[in-house]
Design brief:
Length: 296
Amino acid sequence: MAKKFISIVIVPNWKTSFRTINIPQKAVRLMLGAGISFLVLFVFFLLDYFSMTMTKARYRELLKETSVQKETIANYESTISQMKETIRNFEDYARKINVLAGLQSPENLKGEPGLGGGERADLILPQQNKNIEPGALQAIKQRADAVEKNLNYMLHFFESQTAVLATTPTIWPTVGWVSSPFGPRIDPFTGRNAFHAGLDIATNLNNPVVATADGVVVQVGSDKYKGNYVSISHGNGFSTEYWHLNKYAVRSGQKINRGQVIGYVGKTGKALGPHLHYEVHLNGKPINPVHYIIEE
């Protein structure tokens, strides 16, 4: 059987002769098949390329959204943490006020009585890479409402108890820092266990010492252990003592007001350096002064 050809005639326009190219029909079919296959592969490549481009663009958008969401969550966590700390501070403040009002004893200061009742809501912040607990904000709101109700009650209570509040030692007696708190400690002179019945407030020599509540000076004097000291009776069972003064500025029997200067910091008596030893007594028993100090 004779082979079939497809002839292509080429006629140049600059001369009269022409040229004929014979291509076998089988070769033409192969060329057409190859061309169609290439076209299909090219179209597939274009579609895949555009699909990858769109996927990459979406991926970048998702990364950006994720980054924004992480930042938002971090801000929420920071806000919740700050709200928790604020609520805790208000609760501590409310507990102290409850003690002043006589609604809660100093021994139970760490408890929850007087703050509206009910169970304590746990405010657990989410750990890193975890979602914020849905109940966290609600728990904060509940505790904030409880503190608000308690403080409103205390406001009305103290409006009718101004005389009692005036005789309660609620301020710091001098500016400084607590170098030795109330309670058990190692005696700095003997090295033995001892009970410290007050606060040692380290500060500069001759800093003013003020009365922490209204009252009457019952004694001023000098002692080999206390040094120069002042004792004040405030009424309602409260009395305070101020030791190691460089000098005192009041006299026995004198009426004084909260914030009035009664002496100056020294290091007289049994003292290693300039500081104020401050004691609060309730019905003759030493108590922790911090439980009654409401100023920061």
